[in-house]
Amino acid sequence: MNLTSGIDEPLVLGIETSCDETGVGIVRGTTLLADAVASSVDTHARFGGVVPEIASRAHLEAMVPTIERALKEAGIAAADLDGIAVTAGPGLAGALLVGTTAAKAYAYALGKPLYGVNHLASHICVDQLEHGKLPEPTMALLVSGGHSSLLLAPDITSDVRPMGATIDDAAGEAFDKIARVLNLGFPGGPVIDRLAKEGDPRAIAFPRGLTGSRDPAYDFSFSGLKTSVARWIEARRNAGEEVPVRDVAASFQEAVVDVLTKKAVRACKDQGVDHLMIGGGVAANSRLRALAAERCERAGIRLRVPRPGLCTDNGAMVAALGAEMVARNRPASDWDLSADSSLPVTEPHVPGHGHTHSHDHVHEISKDNLYS
Ligand code: KG4
Ligand code: ZN
């Protein structure tokens, strides 16, 4: 449902720098034109996790080349854009700052409106590039390295409601930690996913967190599982026995995806929502995708999961949400937009103070504000 004066198929460039991926995407409405990503993940691998300072520096170096690559890939001129969107949060403060500053500089120089958008809402909205407009409402299971939440989204541009979230580790974080215990490198999700295919998911009965009858229905907990897996491995090692890595990977993964899918389906049923969207890096997990498909089908719920490349962090997801903001005529952000490392999920974007940008407005702005 379009608000009256929004642009029909807005051409929007999106910049994502919340973690270790410098992503620049370009979309026209819900059509993906370019998705350029430069990752600094290899630089972090030897530390076993993302080092914020290294990520910020890598964003700075990759920013302009990645923007140019995206423009070339899309075959458009920057002057034709209807807006520039950027992740305003949540994420690493320094990394976000590189993205927001670049977005302001480009938007200011080109005379385009600027949209600071929410990383989590972007993970949901990206599915529009693959499966068309999101049904309203949509239930979203958002599972990444930093977040695990169930969100009800009556309107992805203005109304996102948290139903539940992890009370400790995020799902992706659990994958990364178990991979570290097994000496499998970083990030852990993809390698556990691969090894689990050759293991037995029923080999070891690891605990399912917060699934008791008195536990909160939509919250998650993965820290008990993580400890239990680590102890199990340690006991084997102490006894001088070989650790069956594939079985551990498969059994651990099964415990995670069993709980995620069960709670997501339950939330849809309880709330009478017949569409479930799964997004975020962990949505790339093959077992999560398969089990969700099975359980949704049984429950009569339509499942939407973007292809794995759009689940992990990228610029296209930011462009997708930015385009939706323009299409619905949401107010642009102000030039003093600041990166907010803990931007709440309930704020899909950071609107300015009641006006949309125009060229006139752009020229009134003091250059000082660009760097705030
Ligand atoms: O959304 P994302 O790219 O970045 C954040 O916003 O956190 O998610 C990264 C997380 C990492 O923890 C990574 O291990 C996990 O997603 N991940 C996976 C898979 N691919 C990436 N977890 C499980 N299975 C996968 N195939
Ligand atoms: Zn993410």
UniProtKB/TrEMBL annotation:
GO cellular component: cytoplasm
Top-level EC class as recorded in UniProt: transferase
Domain Gcp-like: 32-319
Binding residues for Fe cation: 119, 123, 313
GO biological process: tRNA threonylcarbamoyladenosine modification
Ranges for region Disordered: 337-372
Subcellular compartments: Cytoplasm
Bias kind Basic and acidic residues: ranges: 357-372
Manner of cofactor binding, per the entry note: Binds 1 Fe(2+) ion per subunit.
E.C. code: 2.3.1.234
Protein task: Required for the formation of a threonylcarbamoyl group on adenosine at position 37 (t(6)A37) in tRNAs that read codons beginning with adenine. Is involved in the transfer of the threonylcarbamoyl moiety of threonylcarbamoyl-AMP (TC-AMP) to the N6 group of A37, together with TsaE and TsaB. TsaD likely plays a direct catalytic role in this reaction.
Name of the protein in question: tRNA N6-adenosine threonylcarbamoyltransferase
Lineage summary: Bacteria, Bacillati, Actinomycetota, Actinomycetes, Kitasatosporales
